[in-house]
Amino acid sequence: MTSEAAITVKGLRKSYGKNQVLRGVDLTVKRGTMLAILGPNGAGKTTTVRIMSTLLGFDAGTVTIEGHDVALSPDKVRAVIGLTGQSAAVDEILTGRENLIMMGQLYRLTKRSATLRADELLEQFDLVDAGKRSVKTYSGGMRRRLDLAVSLIATPPIIFLDEPTTGLDPRSRIAMWDIINRLKADGKTILLTTQYLEEADQLADNIVVIDGGKVIAEGTAKQLKAKVGKDRLELTFKKLTEFRAGERALGKLVVDSNKKELTVTLIINDTNKDVAQALAILTKEKVSISSMAIHKPTLDDVFLSLTGKSNQKGGKL
Ligand SMILES: Nc1ncnc2c1ncn2[C@@H]1O[C@H](COP(=O)(O)OP(=O)(O)O)[C@@H](O)[C@H]1O
Ligand SMILES: [Mg+2]
User: Fold this and answer.
1) Distance CA 48, CA 106 (A)
2) Are residues 133 and 260 in the same domain?
3) Residue 124: CB partners within 8 Å, gap ≥ 6?
4) Rounded to whole angstroms, how far apart are CA atoms 172 and 33?
5) Amino acid 186: pLDDT
6) Lower CB density within 10 Å: C or N end of the chain?
7) Which domain holds residue 269?
8) pTM of structure
9) Rounded Cα gap, residues 125 and 144, in angstroms
């Protein structure tokens, strides 16, 4: 492997009948990094992941995983990837541990090696106690963690996580983030899809935003946020007279004001200097504020400015 890229997708197209689901998707994932494909429901995330993991054919383009073309050498691709979201692989009646051992044996590990690997994964995924119980008793979060553990039985260097935390409660989501971060620390190459801006922001090295089967933006979370704008300072006044006086005193610095909320918004370039300047003006005019806050652009702002619509799931937990 001489190339830095573990995953390369070029000009990927896929239609279902007349419905063009992927309209020329390009993306690259460097070895040992995490890329998040961020997009709303129906954007084409699962379709892309299924194609990359050899489960689905496509109409045009190329997909290369660790140097193997998915169309030409699907077996070689399968040998280097782990895919979650295939709950079908888990037997509800068996315990978590039995499932892992069985899966290990399917991957031709000896019973002994499969058992060792199963216990290692149960430990790693906080499932040691749960591992003794039948899978049908598992909570949603435990079930997701087992799915992920099953996909890692053969220690693949590349992991696909298709919406690993959708529908989980905040605590289970954070437990999953923790596990994903540990996989990253282990040097795995990870491709994650998500509808949650916060998740892409927290976890990924790079983000590709897709909508309607096309990449509409890419970069680090920081780069994407820098695209939509500067930090904003929001000042809230105690009463309407103060709000009016403050608005007047700050004059051209005000880019937005809200009479009902008694707030004015200023754009800031240099945080210390601009905040000090605004406060100095108000102090000089004897106008008091009740609170102030600095807002940095969020990925939600990015999404809104790129697509003209807010991501329905939002960025907040
Ligand atoms: N098997 C299928 N047959 C027909 N249309 C499909 C099929 N699978 C997905 N689609 C359509 O493809 C589009 C993208 O779906 P998908 O890749 O599942 O999006 P996402 O995972 O981002 O929510 C949707 O419009 C969906 O209805
Ligand atoms: Mg999906």
Assistant:
1) 26
2) no
3) 149, 179, 182
4) 23
5) 92
6) N
7) 230-296
8) 0.79
9) 10
Q: Summarize pLDDT for 39-63 with one digit per residue, the tens.
A: 988 999 999 999 999 999 999 999 9
Measured between alpha carbons, how far is 234 from 228 in angstroms, rounded to an integer?
17
Determine the atom of ligand 1 nearest the C-alpha atom of 17. Answer: 4
Q: How many domains does the chain have?
A: 2
- Residue 256 CA, ligand 2 centroid: distance in Å: 38
85 CA to centre of ligand 2 in angstroms: 10
Q: Which ligand is nearest to the CA of 57?
A: 1
- The answer to whether position 99 is within a domain reads yes
Residues 189, 288 within the same domain = no
pLDDT number for residue 87? 54
Q: Is residue 12 predicted with pLDDT exceeding 60?
A: yes
The token pair at 83 is 């895919």
Q: Supply the CATH number for residue 239's domain.
A: 3.30.70
Q: Is residue 11 part of a domain?
A: yes
Ligand 1 atom nearest residue 213's Cα: 14
Does residue 77 sit within a domain?
yes
Ligand 1 centroid–CA 42 distance in Å is 6
Q: pLDDT tens for residues 250-274?
A: 999 998 899 999 999 998 888 899 9
Residue nearest to atom 2 of ligand 1 (CA): 16
Residues 34 and 150 in one domain: yes
